[in-house]
Amino acid sequence: MTTVKEVLACFRALHRIRKSVFHGDSLALEAARQKIGEEFRKNAAESDHDKITEQLKIGWDCEMLLREKVVQLQLNKQGRYELKLRQDVRLEKNTPYIEMPEDLSR
After folding, report:
1. Residue 6 burial by CB count (10 A; 0-12/13-18/19+): exposed, middle or buried?
2. Using CA atoms, how far apart are residues 31 and 34, in angstroms rounded to an integer?
3. How far, CA to CA in Å, does 8 sit from each of 18, 29, 98?
4. Longest CA span, the chain
5. DSSP label of 93
6. Are 51 and 2 spatial neighbours (Cβ–Cβ below 8 Å)?
7. Could you tell me the end-to-end alpha-carbon distance of the chain, in angstroms, rounded to an integer?
8. What's the pLDDT score for residue 11?
9. Contacting residues for 86 by C-beta, under 8 A, at least 6 apart
10. SS3 of 67, please?
11. What angle do CA 14, 30, 5 make, to 5 degrees?
12. What is the chain's mean pLDDT, rounded?
């Protein structure tokens, strides 16, 4: 059975990852804090076990997405952006763009 402890664990995990992912970006930190609170308040009165389980799955999926896929760019002194990678970020293999030969593009 889904317990209050499981919901609170998801809530805390989302806030912990929010602080890690958006470290140094007060605007993003506040926006994420508000969104997490809004979603949990919206579903606070839910009593159907299946719906609670479904919402928890969404919460944990969001935590994983933030942890593994979201990166920050930071403007440096030279006017260029630097990628701030965390240890948890999983980089996907990119396929390089190859120009299509003329005879195949028609």
Report:
1. middle
2. 5
3. 15, 19, 48
4. 63
5. P
6. no
7. 59
8. 97
9. 20, 21, 71
10. helix
11. 25
12. 88
Only one residue has tokens 């990628």, namely: 83
Beta-carbon-side half-sphere exposure of residue 26 (alpha carbons within 13 Å): 0
> Where does the chain have alpha helices with state H?
4-21, 26-42, 49-69
Comparing 33 with 92, the larger pLDDT belongs to 33
Q: Choose among 17, 28, 35, 14: nearest CA to 74.
A: 28
Residue with tokens 């402890």: 5
Question: Does residue 28 register a pLDDT over 80?
Answer: yes
Residues in the chain: 106
* Average pLDDT value for residue range 90-104: 75
